[in-house]
Amino acid sequence: MSRDIVVRAEGLYKIFDLYSSRKSVLSSLFLPSRKVSRFQALMDVSFRVEQGDVVGVVGVNGSGKSTLMQLIAGISWPTRGDLEVQGEVSLLSVGFGLDPQLNGLENIELKGILLGLSKKRIQAMRDEIVEFADIGEFINQPMKTYSSGMRSRLGFAISICMDPDILIVDEALAVGDGAFIQKCFDRMKKMQESGKTIFYVSHSPSTMKGFCNRMLWLDRGRVQMFDAVEVVLPRYDQFINGMKKLSVEEKKRLKADEEHERIIPRGRA
Amino acid sequence: MKLLANLRFMAREVLDNRQRISRLAWHDFMVQTTSTKFGFLWQILTPAFQIGTYWFVFTVGLRSGRPIDGVPYILWLIAGIVPWFLYSKAIINGSNSIYSNSYIFQRIKFPVGIIPIYSLLSAFLSHAIELAIVLAILLAFGFFPGFFAFQLLFYAFASFAFLLSLSYITSAVAMLSRDFQKLLQSVIRFLFFLTPIIWPPDNIPAAIDPFLKLNPLYYLVQGYRDTLLYRVPLTGHPLYAAYFWVLILVLFLFGITVHMRFRRNFVDML
Predict the structure, then answer these.
(1) Which residue, A70, A76, B78, B265, is the most exposed by fewest CB within 10 angstroms?
(2) Does A269 map to a domain?
(3) What CATH number corresponds to the domain at position A202?
(4) Is the residue at A12 inside a domain?
(5) How many domains, chain A?
(6) Are B108 and A91 inside 8 Å of each other by CB?
(7) Gap from B40 CA to chain A (nearest CA, Å)
(8) Closest Cα to residue B267, out of B123, B101, B124?
(9) Alpha carbon of A230: minimum distance to chain B alpha carbons (Å)
(10) What pLDDT, on a 0 to 100 scale, did the predictor assign at position B127?
């Protein structure tokens, strides 16, 4: 039986203008966009994710993981290409917290209002969130006093309790402790069983074994591999180990290659 | 037509998010009033101090401040400066609105078009409080406008239409250039003296007056005064009213166009 496709990406490109100063942003309005050099954060990205998939997203820094997650979450838009997303998406990224002056409970309420939830629903979710986050008295303190771990606990609790169709966790659990991460995994497992789709972005792919069923490996803004975890993980490990062995000279050359590939110099279409 | 499609899109967005708009306006207002210990008191004290300063300068310092068309200068000043408090605050807040709310649409999918609306509505809540105080003062001095007070709704709506149209333009430009905010502050200071707020328009040579009237704030401040002090009906200046609404329409359509052109780029401009 085939499942519904919830995310379908076809030839996605995300291209940012590289400005040397704020002033040029303004002048770009009056000049053709070819006057500045541009950076291709994503290049020709295509993949399909089915309902109930748990997709581990890996790649080195700057490979386009977060940019892609923002596109899926509907926060930013692709420059070119087609992206279809079915259902409500919730993106949890590092440094969660809407208003640092407000305390935890107020932030929960604000987030609920921003998402357009009814008062009743916010009220109902509050206790569940507080219990899951388990940060004690800090729930009544301004969020600026939180440690990064507490921030991530509350953020995760809120995202989970909003019960989205697609949950994206972008490195947000990296700062949590072992026990909490296990609790989150258990909870996400439950979500998956009820037919939710999860994107899990992480630098430590070892955690993805047994949790994710598919793996999306991004490299230099392109899809390097998209397959079952058992297929991608060994190859990715191999790649990372290979990178570690490179000399400084070789790394420099790779970086130059990458810039040549991803940066469109000014004046070129 | 693109313009029509844009209008339909914005109307949809506002209708679908009615609840969010009103709750966020209230939230915005409450954050501003409760961020300080005497928050609510400052809502009243700040304008009172400002009115006191101008009154002192004009009646004590400059020894002018004669009654204007039979109304004591202080009352005349209050009726014109209270709408100005709204304008100066709302013009700055409006241009700032998208930038200062960027933490929202950076993190969740959010209808960016409602941000200028609820930022503005929050300023109108303060305006409503201030107008209530003005009416109480007028009542105490025996200048209560009676049923004409209902005209305030019309002038408040006209102010809203002007400020919202302007906000759609300025909030987009402010995202493109951080310098714009500084420029706008100077323009507002200039506008304060260009609009008959502390000086009566009769003092102006008749040849210059039509040029000053190009400024839509002139129409609005005059409207508030006509309503609060002189019992002039809405139909008092039909030609000027026509000019004002045509200007607002053009400004609004331009604002929507600018907003729609850039709204998908805002998140990448941060």
Answers:
(1) B265
(2) no
(3) 3.40.50.300
(4) yes
(5) 2
(6) yes
(7) 18
(8) B101
(9) 32
(10) 94
Is residue A145 domain-shared with residue A29, that is, in the same domain? no
How far apart CA A213 and CA A50 sit, in angstroms, is 11
pLDDT one digit per residue (tens) for chain A, 269 residues: 568 999 999 999 999 888 765 555 566 565 555 567 889 999 999 999 999 999 999 999 889 999 999 999 999 999 999 999 999 898 887 666 667 888 888 888 888 888 888 888 898 889 899 998 888 899 999 888 888 888 888 888 888 888 889 999 988 777 778 888 888 888 888 999 999 999 999 877 877 888 899 999 999 999 999 999 999 999 999 999 998 898 999 999 999 999 888 998 877 76
CA of B254, closest CA in chain A: separation in Å? Answer: 16
What's the helix, strand, coil split of chain B in %, to 5? 80, 0, 20
**Which residues lie below 8 Å from residue B161, measured CB to CB, with a gap of 6+?**
B248, B252
Verify that A28 and A62 share a domain, yes or no: yes
CB contact under 8 A, A113 and B27: yes
The rounded distance, in Å, linking the Cα atoms of A67 and A152 is 20
Does the distance separating the beta carbons of A75 and B267 come in below 8 Å? Answer: yes
Q: Is B105 on the interface with A (CB under 8 A)?
A: yes
The C-alpha atoms of residue A237 and residue A235 are separated, in whole angstroms, by 5
Q: Is A9 left (phi over 0), alpha (psi -120 to 50) or beta?
A: beta
Structure tokens at A228: 């079952």
Q: Are residues A251 and A141 in the same domain?
A: no
Tell me whether B261 touches chain A (CB under 8 Å).
no
Residues A68 and A200 reside in one and the same domain: yes
Residue A218 DSSP label: E
Q: Which two tokens stand for residue B230?
A: 């002189």
The neighbour count for residue A181, using CB atoms within 10 Å, is 16
Q: Where are the alpha helices (DSSP H) in chain A?
A: 22-30, 65-72, 104-114, 119-133, 148-161, 178-193, 229-245, 248-262
Residue A118 and residue A172 share a domain: no
One domain, residues A118 and A15: no
Of A26, A98, A113, the CB nearest to B103: A98
DSSP state of B237: S
Q: Do B177 and A113 touch (CB under 8 A)?
A: no
In a domain, A188, yes or no: no
**What residue numbers bound the domain in which A139 lies?**
95-163
Rg of chain B over Cα atoms, rounded to whole angstroms, equals 19
A96: chain B residues, CB-CB within 8 Å: 107
**CA B241 to each of CA A169, B211, B220: distance values in angstroms, whole numbers, following the listed order:** 55, 15, 10
Assess contact for A139 and A104: CB atoms under 8 A. Answer: yes
Does A76 share its domain with A19?
yes
Which residues of A touch chain B, with CB atoms under 8 Å apart?
16, 22-23, 25-26, 29, 70, 73-77, 89-91, 93, 96, 98-99, 101, 110-111, 113-116
